[in-house]
């Protein structure tokens, strides 16, 4: 049997989310990207492929088009998450990508012009750095946020089929691993 996935406690997740400096444009962007992984269960590839048209402001949803195996889905998002994404929308540079490089420093550091697509490697580095800064003493990846999202849904009373749909899993067996996460870890 597969090992249960690593998840964050609510306290660990909130500590990591508190790390980006939201008064700086890159901090706001990074916080929003973390929020999309933690509160909507997006994979890192889905975060970096998100386009402005994929945020459905009127009905509080994220439309994931470029998902694993090409399977799209619509994910409801909380009002607080939507409000945070609106702050980023109003600050972000013109770009085909919702989350993009946004300042000269970032563009120079990556060699990419402002408005370029972020990379998965960049997001992995950001997550690991914020986890260290938050005092989380184990390995945290973008996928850890996805695991935490799934286990939180189950703890909140969602059915395994509902979680399967929100995660975009083709087979319920893939989702079943979240049933075996220790209840005292889940927020």
Please bin the fraction of helical residues. Answer: 40-55%
Order of helices and strands: HHHEEEHHHHHH
Kindly state the mean pLDDT as a whole number? Answer: 87
- Count of individual beta strands: 3
Sequence of strands across the biggest β-sheet: 1-2-3
Give the strand content. Answer: 5-15%
Number of helices: 9
Which residues sit in consecutive blocks of at least 5 with pLDDT less than 50? 182-187
Biggest sheet: strands, sense, closure? 3 strands, antiparallel
User: What shape does the CA trace take?
Assistant: globular
Distance between the termini: 24 Å
User: What is the CA-atom radius of gyration, in angstroms?
Assistant: 16 Å
Judged by helices, strands and strand pairing, the structural class is mainly alpha
What does this structure look like?
- This protein has 187 residues and is mainly alpha-helical.
- The chain has helices at residues 10-17, 25-40, 44-49, 79-91, 104-110, 120-133, 142-155, 160-167, 172-176, and strands at residues 55-56, 61-64, 73-76.
- Strands 1-2-3 form a three-stranded antiparallel beta sheet.
- α1 (10-17) packs across α6, α2 packs antiparallel against α4 and α2 crosses α7.
- The radius of gyration is 16 Å and the shape is globular.
- The two termini are 24 Å apart.
- The model is unreliable at 182-187 (pLDDT under 50).
Strands, helices and their partners?
Elements: H1 10-17, H2 25-40, H3 44-49, E1 55-56, E2 61-64, E3 73-76, H4 79-91, H5 104-110, H6 120-133, H7 142-155, H8 160-167, H9 172-176
Antiparallel strand pairs: 1-2, 2-3
């Amino acid at each position: 049997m597969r090992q249960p996935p690593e998840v964050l406690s609510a306290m660990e997740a909130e500590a990591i989310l508190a790390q980006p400096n939201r008064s700086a444009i890159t901090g706001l962007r990074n916080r929003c990207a973390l929020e999309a992984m933690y509160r909507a269960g997006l994979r890192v590839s889905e975060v970096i492929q998100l386009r402005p048209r994929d945020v459905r402001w009127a009905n509080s949803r994220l439309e994931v088009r470029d998902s694993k195996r090409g399977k799209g889905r619509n994910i409801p998002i909380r009002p607080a998450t939507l409000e945070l994404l609106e702050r980023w929308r109003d600050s972000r540079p013109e770009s085909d990508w919702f989350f993009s490089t946004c300042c000269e420093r970032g563009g120079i550091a990556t060699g990419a012009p402002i408005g370029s697509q972020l990379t998965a490697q960049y997001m992995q580095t950001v997550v690991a750095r914020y986890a260290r800064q938050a005092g989380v003493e184990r390995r945290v990846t973008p996928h850890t946020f996805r695991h935490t999202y799934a286990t939180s849904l189950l703890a909140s009373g969602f059915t395994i089929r509902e979680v399967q749909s929100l995660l975009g899993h083709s087979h319920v067996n893939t989702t079943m691993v979240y049933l075996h996460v220790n209840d005292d870890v889940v927020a």
